[in-house]
Amino acid sequence: CLKIDPEWIERIKAVMPKSRNEKIARMIEKYNVAEYEAVILVDDETNAGKYFENAALICDKIKSLLSWILRDLMAKVRSKKSDFMNIPFTPNYLVDLVMLIENKYITQKIAKDVFDKCYEFGEKPSEYVERNNLKVKEFPKEEIERILVSIIGANKDVFERYKSGNDRLKGFFMGQLMAKTKGAVNPMIAQKIFDEIINKKKL
């Protein structure tokens, strides 16, 4: 009677190619991604899944990594009919960019510009940010407040609509502030100061 070693069977299973459904299930279980995200990563023929997993090996900010891969990176790869394994913006560069945002060294607006430049020239994001002095500056609270009061004063009609309940118009004032400071103010701090101005009725 032929006896087959169970360990040998397990070794064979380990090296056998996984089915599509197995790959999707593994992606969902290991990285806690949504099913549609796992499907895109597994089915993508330009190696987006492999790129993602290489980045996830060194960074646990899965949602941020996925957002950049499925939105910005995939658009660039497809427009050039390229492959994720051949682009100048490596998984390490993506992690570098994500951590610049997570650590609040740069804003999302600046991050998009940094990404475009670094993708084009194959430069590490942190080095590009340092070389171009793009880190978020510590604007004094009084200076941010002064700029916001000035913006509100120049847009009184918009401000009246905001006070009437159109909360979405706060984004207008934040956008104006970012334009005047070239995106160098921490958005969370700016929104807090804006709310303080309203609550204290400093206008």
Describe the structure.
By secondary structure, the chain is mainly α. The protein has twelve helices and no strands. It has helices at residues 6-15, 20-31, 35-43, 48-56, 62-79, 91-102, 108-121, 125-131, 141-154, 156-163, 170-180, 187-200. Helix 4 (48-56) packs antiparallel against helix 5 and helix 9 packs across helix 11. The longest helix is centred in the middle third of the chain and has 18 residues, at 62-79.
Could you provide a short overview of the structure?
The protein is mainly α and 203 residues long. 68% of the residues lie in helices and 0% in strands.
- Low-pLDDT windows of residues: none
Task: Report the sheet with the most strands, covering strand number, pairing sense and barrel closure.
Answer: none
Radius of gyration: 24 Å
Any idea what the shape is?
elongated
Helix-strand topology string? HHHHHHHHHHHH
> pLDDT average, as an integer?
89
The count of β-strands is: 0
Report the span from N to C terminus.
92 Å
| Strand coverage percent | under 5%
Structural class: mainly alpha
Give the helix level as a range of percent.
Answer: 55-70%
Instruction: Please report the number of helical segments.
Output: 12
Give the helices and strands, then pairings.
Elements: H1 6-15, H2 20-31, H3 35-43, H4 48-56, H5 62-79, H6 91-102, H7 108-121, H8 125-131, H9 141-154, H10 156-163, H11 170-180, H12 187-200
Helix pairs in contact: 2-3, 3-4, 4-5, 4-6, 9-11, 9-12
